[in-house]
Amino acid sequence: MRKRMLVLLLAAAICMGGCGQRPGGTEPAVNMEEDEEQKDSGAEQNRKEDGSDAASEGTDNTEGEDGNIVSGEPASGAEEEKGIVQAKGLAELYQENFPIGIALSGYILQNTEQYGQVILENFNSITCENEMKPDSLLDQAASQANLEDAYLHAAVHFDNCMPAVKFASEHGMKIRFHTLVWHSQTPKWFFTEDYTDEGRLVDRDVMLARMENYIADVLGYFQENYPGLVYAVDVVNEAFDVGDGDETGIRMNKNLWYETVGADYYYQAFVFARKYASKDMKLFYNDYGCMDKADLILEHLARAREEGLIDGIGMQSHLSTDDKIQHKFMLAVKKFCDAGYEVQATELDIGVKEDSDSAFLLQGRKYRSFFKNMKALQEEGYPVTGITVWGLNDDLSWRRDEKCLLFDGDMNPKNAYLGAMMDPSIPDVE
Ligand code: GLA
Question: What is the mean pLDDT of each run of 10 residues along the chain (430 residues)?
Fold first, then answer.
């Protein structure tokens, strides 16, 4: 394993020395389902955690506009070197701090002979990219077939997420469950009287019953069959967005939960999740843009928090190399922690602005800053309890064009990986 690590690092060093990042790999194209998911995400592809849409914050005095180092200090060697020499990979390097997770698609889990070793060397937590979302778990045919009995209690099945569950169980990894209640990737039929896409929407009481039964079924399934496997649950995803929200910022547009249950749908989800979750399942609210909407999130979650229904905030962390890590992102982390929540980075990826050596070096430095600062906060006593990277390699990412992940399309570790590993070749940056 260690030998493999050294080979990987050597390959990366050669790359840094001259060949630059590969423009693309020989990886088979992502399957159609993946493409469909990317299309479905539509405009959301453009929103990042305070990413490229956000106003520029001016020039960072540690990096030039082209991303070249202007005054960055080289990383101080010994401790980091210890990490890279002694750790097999990310999971081991951060084992005293928190789990390191990876979001995996069905495609990757069907090709574990190709990807398994890198996964096992670096990650100890899995999030399903799609296979635990409502459109994967809900069973329309079974619900329709038994409409009388299923009217308040839609059928579910776990076939799609079984490869992830099996892989995690077999290899002693944990699962971050993503996600129970979300306006997206939840089929319209779930909200209608006859479980068809064309049917009339049901009323609040029916939808609350369906929500409760769904949450009870899903959480119950994991508790009964795989006790201890799921350590964190994204109970609600993306419920607050000023642009798409009501006058208080609760997501209203294209949100059938809001339309049927009403503005308190996210609160109700936490009531049911707490009722059915086991003690070892931490309950999370998960969202993008947390740097900019921390106050909005805290305000709306206050009641659930006071009632002990929620444990943590999942900061999706879809970032770009423009983002300030230490002096912006980490301030939001502290703010959530100070308000009584634990914090996990749940969907980390950091996009580059251009395909150049300097851009990929800056990306490496930002990954370094991200991991280093999260670790430092955890060591200071802030309840930072995990980092999950949203995808395994650049070619399989939902942000393919921004090459935002740790490995390139051929699974060569990038500067991004070296940065996350605290390799001394990647200097510190803000
Ligand atoms: C959001 C969701 C994720 C995923 C990404 C895009 O961040 O929380 O599940 O769908 O969008 O891939």
Answer: 44 38 31 34 37 33 36 44 67 98 97 96 98 98 97 98 98 98 98 98 98 99 98 98 98 98 99 98 98 98 98 98 98 98 98 98 98 98 98 97 98 98 96
Amino acid at 295: D
Quick count: other Cβ atoms within 10 Å of Cβ 147? Answer: 11
* Closest approach atom of ligand 1 to CA 178: 9
The answer to whether 414 and 21 are in contact (CB under 8 A) is: yes
Query: Any idea where the domains of the chain sit in the sequence?
Result: 37-45+88-404
Query: In the annotation, is 238 catalytic?
Result: yes
Atom of ligand 1 nearest to the CA of 286: 8
Query: For residues 164 and 412, what is the distance between their CA atoms, to the nearest angstrom?
Result: 23
Q: Does the domain made of 37-45+88-404 have the CATH classification 3.20.20.80?
A: yes
Residues with CB under 6 Å of ligand 1 are: 41, 44, 178, 237, 288, 316, 347, 398
Known catalytic residue at 299: no
Closest residue to atom 8 of ligand 1, CA basis: 237
